[in-house]
DNA sequence: ATGTAGGCGCTACGCCGACAA
DNA sequence: TTGTCGGCGTAGCGCCTACAT
């Protein structure tokens, strides 16, 4: 009759020893559902571009700190490394269920342009499950007063059909989370007007996962009809890195040193990508990068669209205008394409949206692509208006593989 | 009427915004009480010896991993750095209350032996509070069935005296934790036979701190008569570093790179010392290091004592014998004095005690010190038995500041 | 269609002394 | 001296509908 252990799941893998790190890769569909519709992982074996600059931004975000400006870069570490994506495993934090991907990368020598152009445009499927729903929890859902109110369409789409001959119609649901722990819920259809509810078992789940109003839960049904459930916490309460292990300086320098050492020795290195914490993806398929850098003509004043995730876990495009171009950090990362575009957004509610994006983040509205292959030098010489000196010099200095 | 927020403290600094990292240094007495009687921090402004090797061991322990053997050391990073201890701040993890110290170090040029010998033997006071008690929680203490049974002497020593004219004698206690949050308890003296108990308020504290049987709580009374309380968790459930931020390789390399960069530029760097997680102290006062290395004659077969912490938070000495001497990691850290002694312990219950310790960890039993100063070379040439070739060559190669 | 609140039964939290170790 | 238990009152958890949006 202990206090805390009682809130564990009722069945399943609780008997296993305290295994703090998931060993194997998790259920891919559920992982992607938790990660959200925008998260696309490059396939294993493909070539990717790794941006140490973006990696340090994720580390800084995890520690809720600004990027340390006083850490110098390694003189030989370029702002981007072309790598072979040697392996990807999907994980979830044991305590928070936060999803993250472990990637092992092997730096490869720069490819010549011919090869680069011949690389296929690798299609990355989001692998969002078709049979799933996601609901942001209300105060009533998380209070101790009652259960969970299931949106009608959601229940009808992913839950097994109820026997409406019963009064009231009810069934027991079993769903597994990312750690393969099973949770039991009583699913009942009652009330006036009628509605779908989760009652018994729901509060145990809320307590164990420490869910609060504003967090979201999602249910999916796999191709065998098995239910799975995951959570997406509100941004404000994402896991915070304990600062008690390494100083942020050491973390920052560790990212750079690991990449630098791997690049110098062409050896494997390992990074973690936290899709819901990282400000931007910092491992990009070569084809996506190349398509944006080589084929996309951008200029100040150009209009574009960009995809964002809505609160209801679908996607929506916002419109914006390029207001400037230039290095985000000209001292430490000169001639980097990382978030080199300064942008403004059409909608006034755009306070949260980033003021700097990368070329491969945006979709141009008009005349998007030039014929390929066309030398960069030729295009840079073409007269175009509305560009300042900084931009011009950046374009001149930049070359594809630097 | 929310589920989780209700278990917070009833008064005090809950209103402050979600501040994940303690800014200022905490109450020193309470911190030291939580850290335990063996933890002695060198004073700010003194010179210390920093061992990157020991630092990586702490990081590995925090991640519950072995030290990565495949990470090479930086060619110019010595196994120890003499540093000025520029600053020390005391902290506690927001989620677990685990105590840790942040130290900023500035590498300084090696001092000549004369200066080293003249440096005073800095006395480090443990600053354990005199009025305090520590109790390991029983199953009854942590169950939901009842409150907390206070040891009689403990209650009489640190709690305000009860008015025994009341029936039953009782009072309300207020105590602040390391985060300056206040907790309220009903302290009552009742039962047959009579005993001291904490009833109302205790279960809230246990839930909020997620205490389990085996964890320890401690109460202290400061010089103003204010009560403070802290916790010491059982080793098995110490905070585990989330592996989702940096790979262990990057952490490991980050420690080395930060120290290497600071040593090369004589600039400040920051480390965290987790006294209850780290296998050994890796920042040692110069005087302590010097006293052990320069003055202490050790040889295989020598008997020694070493201090350990008991379960009741006092100290006790165990006896042992030196069984070997030599580098722990001859490849990456040659001629390091870090845990260079292989030892065996007298008591058969010594399974948990370390098999390797450093010179400054032990207290020799007989004829401990030679007159000082006496050249190392001379002592190394003196004939002594029972030493193998490895030890001899190590002693010959080693010099004070390498 | 679904969030919130009132009503109310019943579980289990938590306060008590009785034992024993 | 103090760990655990049986006894027990009651706070609050959680299931139900009503009502509002």
UniProtKB/TrEMBL annotation, chains A, B:
One of its GO terms (biological process) is auxin-activated signaling pathway. Transmembrane segments: none annotated. Its main location: nucleus. Residues 381-401 are annotated as: Disordered. Homodimers and heterodimers. Belongs to the ARF family. This is Auxin response factor. It comes from Physcomitrium patens. The lineage of its organism: Eukaryota, Viridiplantae, Streptophyta, Embryophyta, Bryophyta. The chain holds residues 5 to 406 of 550 of the full protein.
């Amino acid at each position: 009759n202990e206090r805390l252990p009682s809130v564990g799941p009722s069945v399943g893998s609780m008997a296993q020893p305290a295994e703090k790190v998931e060993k194997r890769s998790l259920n891919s569909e559920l992982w992607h559902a938790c990660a959200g519709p925008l998260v696309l992982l490059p396939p294993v074996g493909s070539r990717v571009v790794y941006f140490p600059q973006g990696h340090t931004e994720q580390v800084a975000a995890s520690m809720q700190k600004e990027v340390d400006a006083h850490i110098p870069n390694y003189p030989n570490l370029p702002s981007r490394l072309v790598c072979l994506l040697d392996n990807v495993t999907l994980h979830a934090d044991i305590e928070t269920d936060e999803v993250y991907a472990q990637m092992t990368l092997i730096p490869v020598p720069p490819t010549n342009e011919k090869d680069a152009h011949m690389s296929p445009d690798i299609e990355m499927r989001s692998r969002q499950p078709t049979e799933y729903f996601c609901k942001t929890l209300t105060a009533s859902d998380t209070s101790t007063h009652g259960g969970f109110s299931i949106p009608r369409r959601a229940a009808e789409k992913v839950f097994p059909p109820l026997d409406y001959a019963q009064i009231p119609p009810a069934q027991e649901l079993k769903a597994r989370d990312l750690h393969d722990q099973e949770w039991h819920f009583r699913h009942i259809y009652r009330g006036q007007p009628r509605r779908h509810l989760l009652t018994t078992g729901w509060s145990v789940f809320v307590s164990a996962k420490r869910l609060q109003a504003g967090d979201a839960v999602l249910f999916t049904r796999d191709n065998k009809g098995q239910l799975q459930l995951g959570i997406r916490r509100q941004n404000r309460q994402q896991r915070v890195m304990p600062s008690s292990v390494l100083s942020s300086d050491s973390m920052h320098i560790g990212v750079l040193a690991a990449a630098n050492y791997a690049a110098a020795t062409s050896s494997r290195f390992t990074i973690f990508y936290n899709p819901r914490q990282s400000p931007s993806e910092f491992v990009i398929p070569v084809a996506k990068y190349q398509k944006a850098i080589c084929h996309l003509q951008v200029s100040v004043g150009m209009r574009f669209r960009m995809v964002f995730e809505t609160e209801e876990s679908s996607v929506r495009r916002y419109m914006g205008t390029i207001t400037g171009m230039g290095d985000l950090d000209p001292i430490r990362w000169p001639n980097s394409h990382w978030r080199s575009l300064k942008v403004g957004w059409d909608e006034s509610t755009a306070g949260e949206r980033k003021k700097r994006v990368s070329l491969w983040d945006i979709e141009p509205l008009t005349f998007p692509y030039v014929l390929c292959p066309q030398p960069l030098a030729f295009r840079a010489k073409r007269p175009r208006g509305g560009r300042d000196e900084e931009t011009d010099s950046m374009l001149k200095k930049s070359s594809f593989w630097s």
